[in-house]
C-alpha cells in the first residue's frame, strides 16, 4: 500500500496548529519540509517518512530517519528535519494527536499508553519489523480514507483505527526498550553493516558477503541486525533497492532500467518483489505516476 495514487495528498499545513480535539492526519508530497525550522507544539506528532532519508532532530537527539521508520514527538518537544541538497518533493504522512484525547483512551489502553509514555523518555524513533510496518502503514492510510470519507461514522472508526496503531507502537517500543540504544561493540559493528548496505545496495550484495566482509557469523549478524534495525539484512537490502527503483520510476526511467539500476539482476524477481512490497506492479506504478502528471509523462 503506497501513496503513489496521490488520492489523499494534502496541502501543507503552514499554521502547525490543531483545529480538531482528537486526531488530524495529513499526507504530504512536496518540498515544504525544506523550510521547516525548529519548532514545538502542544500535541503529539507521529511522522512517517515514505520517500528520501535524512536526520530528524528531537530536542538534543538526532535520529537517522528512513522509509520504514517513524518518529513520535511528545507535546512541548522541539523538533525539526535536517535536509541537504536541493529542495525536492518528499512524501510523508503526519498524524497529530490531541493529548487530552489520548489521555481519555487510558481507560481502554492503560498498559499501551503507559508503555508509550515510559519508552518515549529514551526512544522517539520507531523501527518496526517489515510486516508490522506494513500493518501500521495500512492503518495510517485507513485514517486518511476516513478523513476523506468524512461521514457520521468516520470519527468513531478513526478512534478504533488509532487504538490499533497505538498498540502496534507500544509493541515496537517494548521490543526496542529491550535492545539498548548503544549496546557497545555489537551496536557499532551492526551499524557498520547498516551503513555499508546504504552505500552499496545497488551492487551485487548478499548476506553471505556481508558476514564475510565484517567477520561476523551469518546467523549472529542476522539476529543482531534484526534486533537493532527491525528486519533482517536481506530484507533491508531489498527495501533499499525497491525504494530506489520506485524513485527512478517517479523520475520517468524505464521499468527494467529502474530495476537493474537498483541492484536487481533478474527482472522477474524485481517484478515479484515490487508487487509484494507496494501492492501494485511496476508498470501500474508508472501508469499512476503518468496519470497524476508525474515526470513519466
Précis, in short:
This protein has 297 residues and is an alpha+beta fold. The protein is built from eleven helices and eight strands.
Can you describe this structure?
With 297 residues, the chain is of the alpha+beta class. The protein is 48% helix and 14% strand. It has two domains: 23-177, Regulatory protein AraC (Jelly Rolls); 184-291, Arc Repressor Mutant, subunit A, CATH 1.10.10. The strands form two sheets. The protein has a five-stranded antiparallel β-sheet.
What is the fold's blueprint, element by element?
Elements lengths: L22 E8 L13 E6 L4 E5 L2 E5 L4 E4 L5 E4 L7 E8 L1 H6 L5 H10 L5 E2 L3 H20 L4 H24 L6 H17 L6 H7 L4 H12 L3 H18 L4 H7 L5 H12 L3 H10 L6
Antiparallel strand pairs: 1-7, 2-5, 2-7, 3-4, 3-6, 5-8
Helix pairs in contact: 2-4, 3-4, 5-7, 5-8, 8-9
Alpha-beta classification: alpha+beta
The number of distinct helices, counting runs of at least 4 residues, comes to 11
Low-confidence stretches: 1-5
How many domains? The number is: 2
CATH topology of the largest domain: Jelly Rolls
Question: What is the helical fraction, as a range of percent?
Answer: 40-55%
Q: In sequence order, what are the helices and strands, one letter per element?
A: EEEEEEEHHEHHHHHHHHH
For the record, what is the CATH homologous superfamily label of the largest domain? Regulatory protein AraC
Q: In the CATH classification, which architecture of the largest domain applies?
A: Sandwich
Shape: globular
Straight-line N-to-C gap: 23 Å
Describe the main β-sheet briefly.
5 strands, antiparallel
Radius of gyration: 19 Å
Amino acid at each position: 500500500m503506497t501513496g503513489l495514487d496521490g488520492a489523499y495528498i494534502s496541502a501543507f499545513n503552514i499554521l502547525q496548529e490543531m483545529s480538531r480535539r482528537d486526531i488530524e492526519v495529513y499526507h504530504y508530497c512536496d518540498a515544504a519540509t525544506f523550510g521547516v525550522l525548529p519548532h514545538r507544539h502542544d500535541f503529539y506528532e507521529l511522522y512517517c517518512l515514505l520517500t528520501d532519508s535524512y536526520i530528524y532532530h528531537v530536542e538534543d537527539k538526532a535520529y537517522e530517519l528512513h522509509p520504514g521508520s517513524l518518529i513520535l514527538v511528545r507535546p512541548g518537544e522541539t523538533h525539526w528535519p535536517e535536509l541537504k541538497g536541493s529542495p525536492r518533493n518528499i512524501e510523508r504522512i503526519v498524524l497529530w494527536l490531541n493529548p487530552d484525547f489520548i489521555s481519555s483512551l487510558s481507560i481502554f489502553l492503560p498498559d499501551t499508553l503507559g508503555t508509550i509514555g515510559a519508552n518515549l523518555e529514551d526512544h522517539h524513533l520507531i523501527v518496526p519489523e517489515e510486516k508490522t510496518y506494513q500493518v501500521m502503514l495500512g492503518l495510517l492510510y485507513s485514517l486518511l480514507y476516513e478523513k476523506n470519507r468524512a461521514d457520521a461514522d468516520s470519527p468513531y472508526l478513526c478512534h478504533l483505527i488509532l487504538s490499533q496503531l497505538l498498540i502496534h507502537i507500544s509493541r515496537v517500543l517494548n521490543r526496542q526498550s529491550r535492545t539498548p540504544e548503544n549496546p557497545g561493540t555489537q551496536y557499532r559493528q551492526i551499524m557498520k553493516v547498516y551503513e555499508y548496505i546504504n552505500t552499496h545496495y545497488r551492487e551485487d550484495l548478499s548476506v553471505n558477503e556481508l558476514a564475510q566482509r565484517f567477520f561476523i557469523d551469518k546467523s549472529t549478524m542476522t539476529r543482531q541486525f534484526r534486533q537493532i534495525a527491525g528486519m533482517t539484512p536481506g530484507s533491508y537490502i531489498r527495501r533499499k533497492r525497491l525504494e530506489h527503483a520506485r524513485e527512478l520510476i517517479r523520475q520517468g526511467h524505464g521499468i527494467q532500467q529502474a530495476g537493474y539500476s537498483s541492484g536487481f539482476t533478474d527482472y522477474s524477481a524485481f517484478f515479484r518483489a515490487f508487487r509484494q512490497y507496494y501492492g501494485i506492479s511496476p508498470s501500474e506504478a508508472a501508469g499512476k505516476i503518468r496519470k497524476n502528471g508525474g515526470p513519466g509523462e
